[in-house]
Amino acid sequence: MKVSVWRGGADGSLQSFEVPRYASQTVLDVVTHIQRKLDPTLAYRYACRVGMCGSCAMTVNGVPRWTCRAHVDKVVQKNELTIRPLRNLPIIRDLVADMRTFFDKWERAGGHFEGTTTKAEDFARIAPDSAERKAIDAGTECIGCGVCYAACDVVSWNPDYLGPAALNRAWTLAVDSRDANPLQRLRAVAGDAGCHACHTHMSCTERCPKHISPTASIAGLKRAVAKAAMEGKL
Amino acid sequence: MKHVALIHRLSGIALALFLPLHFWALGQGLEMDAFLRWTEQPLVKLAEWGLVVLLAAHLGGGLRVLAIELLDWHEWQKSLAAVAAALMLAAGLAFALAL
Amino acid sequence: MLAVCVIVHLATIVYAVRGGLTAAEIFARTRGSVAWLAFYSVFVLTVAVHAPIGLRPVMTEWLGWRGRTRDTFLFAFAALLAWMGMRAILVLFV
User: What is the pLDDT of residues B27-83, one digit of tens each?
Assistant: First the structure.
């Protein structure tokens, strides 16, 4: 089949290769075949190749996916594949996207936990079936692969927008009763680049390989931010 | 789902642009008859029907957003796109019949 | 609240438009009615607030317009809608 692959940086272009089709072949198999057998200069990322790490995320026929989990039979169109790096991120080279803005926004959204207790104190007791824990469980499995960020229209329209992954993580921390400063978290995601810029297109939810719904988390943030604003706390 | 959101946005833009004209026409007072005669033309009738559909589409999309953002998360909220579309068609039909 | 207004408005218009429309017919229904005056006043003012809020992300994301000039424009648009709307209401309902 014909496989068109992005080469170069932002000003690069697509290059075509003829790649044999096999049964149970994944797009990652295809890219690996090209790099090993046809053109060793092709740059791309992968690690676990079994759908655990998220490193192999690329745009396949216009859709952001984990290439190790994208079976060629399911995504091929007219016996052709077009593979580009993830959208909404600068291109380092070929199929490798620069993830720095993605993680910068993660930090800006308050993406790490800060508790109030020390090793000297007892464990926090959180019931696994409590509303708080269920909300956190729904969003906590994110491994930062960037697929949702690439799928998001608002990210492509508004370069400041924090994006679905960062906001999803912010939500899981904002509802955590052990958190040191919940108001500060809400402040970080309020404003024009924050949760209210989400227009519920739900492309993130549609594409997330871990079946997380950033839309649901962002809806939670919208409610929390609005409530805090109306109580004058922001 | 993003197509519902896009229709919501485009219908909103169209309605926002239309509103000044709508208010102007209504403010014409008794000279409105001349304007109303102009609106009898089939192209204008079609445009009026289009506006009603756009309003219904915008309403449907808006209700979808309100449901997702204000109510607790449920799986059925994803079907709201269908609800919005249904609303739009119903309103368009009713208006077409009334004409 | 706007959802309720829109539904009422749509239902009313669909009902009123049946069989055609003249200015006299419209005025016969609307003049002197305090209830409709109140309803449409609320409708116009909420729309005058809602439309600019809705346009704001469109301007930021699709027109690249940000900052104070964008917001000033939106306030002006809101004022325009409110003024034109209330003027129409005065003509129709008073």
Answer: 776 566 677 777 777 887 788 788 878 888 887 888 888 888 877 666 666 666 667
Cβ of A206 within 8 Å of Cβ of B1? The answer is yes
At A108-153, the pLDDT tens digits run: 999 889 888 888 999 888 899 998 999 999 999 999 999 999 999 9
Distance from CA of A183 to the nearest CA of C (A): 25
**Structural domain count of chain C:** 1
State the best of C53, C61, C68 to mutate against chain A, taking most chain A CBs within 10 Å: C61
Q: CB burial class (10 A; 0-12, 13-18, 19+) of residue B38? A: exposed
CB A207 within 8 A of CB A155: no
- Show residues of chain B in contact with C92, CB under 8 Å: 26
Q: Which residues between 173 and 202 in chain A have a beta carbon less than 8 angstroms from any beta carbon of chain B?
A: 199-202
Distances (CA, A) of A29 to A32, A77, C79: 5, 17, 60
**CB within 8 Å: A197 and C57:** yes
Which CATH number characterizes residue B67's domain? 1.20.1300.10
* The dihedral sign for the CA sequence B40, B41, B44, B46: positive
Q: Could you give the ipTM of this predicted complex? A: 0.80
CATH superfamily of A2-97: Beta-grasp domain (3.10.20.30)
Beta strand residue intervals within B1-99, DSSP E = none
Q: Where in chain A is the domain with CATH 1.10.1060.10?
A: 100-230
C15 and A CB contact within 8 Å: no
Specify the domain boundaries for CATH 3.10.20.30 within chain A.
2-97
pTM of the model: 0.86
